[in-house]
């Protein structure tokens, strides 16, 4: 199993309720969700990607089975039938709804049904490349933002979309660096399917730009700059009231702290001489 499959299944697992409501158009109770065991032993060890127990609004529980596929597998309809029988045997008390979500780079060519002489099986098929990325961007959750990289940008500038995803992830997860790194790793893996390597690298530069305002030396510099501005303004006021300032006075102003400048500034209003300002 490739990295993209593993990552996508993890993300989809966290987004199940949202996907069921908005992407799969299922009317469910978003607060009712239970992940079911999916490992079934035969000759080989295999498991369905995601089986979740959901409930329709005002209705009965059912099982939602989702498979994530990164390539066009002509045997997928048969695999979906096999997964279905495994799930039904494990949980015979629940009806099952199946969906295949395709995240591959190539054009989707897989069918969504199996047709035999006496057998018919059909399941839902979602091509992520045909989904408007705006839907997932509006969910404004880390998982939805990561998954949106697979969607249709609908003519938007790819760099702008990728930059937005990166910066928004940073804003949402600024207090959880570990999770932020995980999401960035997921994003980088999934982006390969959309040929967004250059945009990802550029966005990483934006993400890793140092916030200079948080660096102590920068803050000290800013404070000194503000004091210098106050000093220049104070000197201008003095010059307008008392004429050209003597060199010693100008030097004293340049070396003054912010508190001194404020105190002297208050005295300008009533002072009749420079001595009264600095006394």
If you had to describe this structure to a student in words, what would you say it looks like?
There is one protein chain. By secondary structure, this protein is an alpha/beta fold. Helices cover 50% and strands 17% of the residues. It has helices spanning 3-14, 16-23, 76-90, 133-139, 142-147, 158-172, 177-191, 197-207, 216-242, 247-254, 258-268, 274-278, and strands spanning 28-35, 39-41, 45-47, 50-56, 61-69, 96-102, 113-115, 120-122, 124-127. The protein has 3 domains: 1-130, Trna Endonuclease, Chain: A, domain 1, CATH 3.40.1350; 132-209, no CATH class; 214-278, no CATH class. The strands form 3 sheets. The chain has a 5-stranded mixed beta sheet, sandwiched between helices.
Mind sketching the topology for me?
Elements (H helix, E strand, L loop, with lengths): L2 H12 L1 H8 L4 E8 L3 E3 L3 E3 L2 E7 L4 E9 L6 H15 L5 E7 L10 E3 L4 E3 L1 E4 L5 H7 L2 H6 L10 H15 L4 H15 L5 H11 L8 H27 L4 H8 L3 H11 L5 H5 L1
Parallel strand pairs: 5-6, 6-9
Antiparallel strand pairs: 1-4, 2-3, 4-5, 7-8
Helix pairs in contact: 6-8, 9-11
CA gyration radius, whole angstroms: 32 Å
The second-level CATH architecture of the largest domain is: 3-Layer(aba) Sandwich
Widest beta sheet: strand line-up = 1-4-5-6-9
**What's the CATH topology name of the largest domain?**
Trna Endonuclease, Chain: A, domain 1
Total domain count: 3
Tally of contiguous helical segments: 12
Rough shape?
elongated
| Topology as a string of helices (H) and strands (E) | HHEEEEEHEEEEHHHHHHHHH
How widely separated are the two ends? 80 Å
Task: Give the amount of beta strand, in percent.
Answer: 15-25%
